[in-house]
Amino acid sequence: MKRQEQAALGLASLSLCCGIAVYFFFRTTDSLRLLQIAGIHEYFTSTTLQLTPTWPNLVNAVPSGTHTFSFSIFTAIALGLTKRTLFLSCIAWVSINGLLEVSQLAESCPLQIAQCDYRLCRTFCACFTNGTFDWYDMAFLFVGGALAFSVVATLQADDWSIK
To answer: Based on the structure, what is the number of domains in the chain?
Structure first.
């Protein structure tokens, strides 16, 4: 792995950790779906820091951007980092996260899944029914995709200029 790819991987990992930190420090554990799937969310305290009224929407939207940023880079590196794979990875993750965000506009979980007895089914439905559509999330996921492309393209500028 080239030094530029290592730097991109490090930035993506750091970004993902920052997004996860928002969940742990600024949201209740009810919003931590992976802990619910694992059945261990009750072992974590439900702490929420008090934010000023003007900032909660911005802070709560950070994970949307960091997720898009990180997974765009992870995917591009896994596919073999080129301008094309980076661009397609960014488009794919902006689209995936955008669709997931838009699906929170209404009760979008089919009744058959909602009535399923398995914890995974209930947790899957909770992602849609308990989620709230937010324009800040939409904006941040676009920013995350654009930043992923810009940052990695800048890191790779020397290599890509000769191709």
So the answer is: 1
